[in-house]
Amino acid sequence: MAESAPEKPGSQADEAQASRAARPDRSTWIAGGIVLALVLWMGSGFVFPAEEEEQVVRDEPVAPVAVSVRESQAQPVEQVFIAEGQALPVRDTVLRAEMSGEIVALEAERGDSISEGAVIARFNDEERAAARAQAEAELERAERELEQAETLLDRGTGTLDRVVNARTARAAADAALVSARRAERHTAIRAGFDGRLDDLDIETGEFVSAGETVGRLIDLDPLRVEIQVPQQVLSGIHTGMQAEVRFITGETAQGVIRFVGSAADPRTRTFPAEIAVDNPDSTIPAGISAQVRVPTEETMAHFLSPATLALSTDGRLVVKTVDDEDVVVAHTVSIVRAQSDGIHVAGLPDTARVITIGQGFVNDGDTVAPQPDERDAPEPGDDPQAVTQAPDTQAPETGTQGDAQAVSPLDPADPASELFGDDAQMPSPGAQ
Questions:
Q1: How many helices and strands (H and E) does the chain possess?
Q2: Close Cβ partners of 361 (under 8 Å, ≥ 6 residues apart)
Q3: Residue 254 belongs to some domain of the structure
Q4: How many CA atoms lie within 13 A of 290 on its CB side?
Q5: What is the pLDDT of residue 352?
Q6: How far apart are CA 187 and CA 102, in angstroms?
Q7: Per-residue confidence (pLDDT) for residue 64, from 0 to 100
Q8: 3-class DSSP assignment, residue 49
Q9: Quick one: which H or E segment has residue 17?
Q10: Which residues pair with 80 in a beta bridge?
Q11: Which domain holds residue 329?
Q12: What's the confidence (pLDDT) of residue 411?
């Protein structure tokens, strides 16, 4: 028999590879089965939908929030306009020499109180005295010549022209004498009014020119206090109104408004005003700072702690109170007077239960559980730093409406911690 040809090793390997490729891969079958199971599970939801369980809403009553309240009664409050000013002399003038010459005597010293017309200094008047004597002699001569000319005219031996010339000469001599006497009076520097010689810059033997400044004379009675009045309160300030003036040196005096300007300063939009203060002994100096308090009107207001104020989202200042049915009522208020120990506010009923603790956690219309505030109530005092008639007590508008929020957050040390408890859950501000 003929022997068959031996097979090539490469052909056997190719056949085995082709055989394996023709058989399905086991991992492929597994993946396909998983995909099919997922599709069937997702589709079952559309074929057999699950029954929806009804949600039960339970209306559980919310316990009222506990707050502290204090009874407040409105009281009359005097509104006062307060301004800072400066004390100035009622008259202040610079002394000048009216002639040139040598100072031969000083009749007053710096700091002296002098009367109107009193001599302060004298010039060397020898030259002025000689000029006056000469002018007097010239006037006598001119009068004699006029008399002679008129006599000759009456006798018919004189002329009218000679009489006219004589009269002209006499008038000139008379004018020269008046000028000489005036110049002689100017040989003394005199006070123009009653006052205090605040400065004197000349000494004996010094030569002074005409028009040169030699001193300063001031009048401190009455003293003039100058202030600036804002345009918002100008209508309430009038001449003749009483004012209390407190100087920085500690003195306090009563004054009267004697001037209110009619034109505002274009830079500050304020109007000048002056208060006259009696200062008979000139004990209060000029130039010091002063605070002026002008009572304007009286209004009814409540004295409260600043902590009771709240700010609404539309920029209004409000105070929250509790009515007879324990419902929160937010009242829009305005600050009438503010001082270091409290504020006076208007806009509340004459009698009100003001929320003093917890006002930041309740809103207008909420029902609360009020508890009396056992702390001492603030009492208004005479505060020299009190500020009244605040020009603007509202915050800028935010353009939204809503419930009022507390002006400042509750301090961790606030007594509200005792009222609500350390672990109590507070309703967030603005929550309904």
A1: 5, 22
A2: 65, 67, 410, 426, 427, 429
A3: no
A4: 32
A5: 93
A6: 10
A7: 87
A8: coil
A9: helix 9-22
A10: 295
A11: 66-77+299-419
A12: 41
Q: How many CB atoms lie within 10 A of CB 303?
A: 22
Is the torsion defined by CA of 170, 173, 179, 182 positive or negative? Answer: negative
Q: Which of 69, 93, 176 lies closest to 131, judged by CA?
A: 176
> Regarding predicted confidence, which is higher, 294 or 37?
294
Residue 159 scores a pLDDT above 70: yes
Measured CA to CA, the distance from residue 309 to residue 410 in angstroms comes to 12
Q: From CA 389, how far away is CA 376, in angstroms rounded? A: 27
Average pLDDT value over all residues in the chain: 79
Query: Considering the domain boundaries, does residue 328 fall inside one?
Result: yes
User: What token pair was written down for 371?
Assistant: 């508890």
Helix %, strand %, coil % of the chain (to 5): 25, 35, 40
> Based on the structure, what is the number of domains in the chain?
1
Measured CA to CA, the distance from residue 423 to residue 409 in angstroms comes to 18
In a domain? residue 229:
no
Q: What's the CA gap between 274 and 87, in Å, rounded?
A: 10
Opening angle at CA 325, ends 320 and 329, nearest 5: 20
> What residues are paired with 65 via a beta bridge?
368
C-alpha 395/C-alpha 398 separation (Å) is: 9
CA neighbor of 83 nearest in space, from 252, 270, 240, 335: 270
Average pLDDT over residues 94-99: 88
Within 171-286, strands assigned E span 188-190, 195-200, 207-208, 213-230, 242-247, 252-260, 270-277
Residue pair 367/327 in contact (Cβ under 8 Å)? The answer is yes
Q: Which CATH number goes with the domain that contains 409?
A: 2.40.420.20
pLDDT at 425: 36
Write the CB contacts of 400 (distance below 8 Å, at least 6 apart in sequence).
313, 314
Classify the C-alpha dihedral 360-365-367-368 as positive or negative: positive
Model confidence at 426: pLDDT above 50: no
Q: Around Cβ 284, how many Cβ atoms within 10 Å?
A: 20
CA-nearest of 348, 371, 362, 355 to 322 is: 355
Q: Which two tokens stand for residue 118?
A: 């009193």
Burial class of residue 196, CB neighbours in 10 A (0-12, 13-18, 19+): buried
Residues in the chain: 432
| Half-sphere exposure at residue 51, Cβ-oriented, CA atoms within 13 angstroms | 2
pLDDT at 70: 92
* 281 lies in some domain: no
The predicted pLDDT at position 418 comes to 41
